[in-house]
Known about the structure:
- The chain has 339 residues and is α/β, with parallel strands linked by helices.
- 45% of the residues lie in helices and 11% in strands.
- The chain is built from 14 helices and 10 strands.
- The strands form 3 sheets. A 6-stranded mixed beta sheet has the order 2-1-5-6-10-9, with helices on both faces. A two-stranded antiparallel sheet has the order 3-4. A two-stranded parallel ribbon has the order 7-8.
- α1 (16-35) links the parallel β1 (4-9) and β2 (43-48).
Amino acid sequence: MSSLRLGVLAYPGCFGSEVFGVPDLLVMARHIAAAQGAARPSCEVSVVSPRRRVIMSGGLTVGVSAMRPLDVLVVPGFELTPALDLDAALADLRPEVAAIRSQAASGAAVVSICVGAFLAAEAGLLDGREATTAWLFAHRLARRYPDVKVCPERLVVTDRGVTTTAAFSAMYDFALQLIREQDGPGVARSTARVALVDDARTTQAPYVDPALLPVAGREFSRGVKRWLDRNLGSRYDLSALSAAFHVSTRTMLRRFGEEAGQTPLAYVQSARVRRARHLLETTDRTVARIAADLGYTDASTFSAVFARHTGRRPRDYRAMFRRSPAEPVGDIPHEPGTR
Length: 339
């Protein structure tokens, strides 16, 4: 069995945990495989950089090796804030973008963690491919790189030798996938148990909080959203909504769609799901009661809508995300500016 040469690309401002997360889980898997008597290929791990010295996020310095031929190159994410000048940040990382492009051209499989997808996209590796990233920044990736088919609900996407993962902890989903391929499902499962890592996740949809996304639309759509938020428990009626804003139904659909990028009904459903998530996490109300409170006469219809948005049925969601009594409940979250 040939040795797998895996390199993690360190660069200024990258997250240290995303540099070491995958290698550390691979080390655990190696010990577990040995304990189970499994034959496994060796894995040579190195932290590589086109620079001689790298200071990561938080001011931590990491020792690096020069770029070398690799089988797998892992590209960690970085501190992407609303105030960050992304154009300038990526321009400063031109040596890293060139290194990513060069490794891919040499046949290495490239794996981006979280917003490391922006570096892979900047290198041109995601053009015409499906990709994912942290749900909070998926819209930004799609807007900046229109040739990339962004799948914001996916945890790990592999398309023709390039793998992208969702936010932060999704690096473990990729690592478990790699362990599963290298050592088999038994070792992967044992590694997940030892590390307390969820090995059954298939989507990042349950973690999405629309209230944290940038507010979409302009004044008209914001007003419509406020009206819909106040009437979540009522039956959705496009004619009544349009009349409240003194426009035709056709104009309502056109203007709201242009500003918000969705229909009023789609917004109502997502807002109801957002409210339902909060109630499932913080109250003992039955699923049927929550469905009725949110305007659904049929609990099964509500459950189907909830599952379509989150990837889990309401009862499964409650079992996974129910807060302990000691945790602060707070108010039911609203879209920014809708109170």
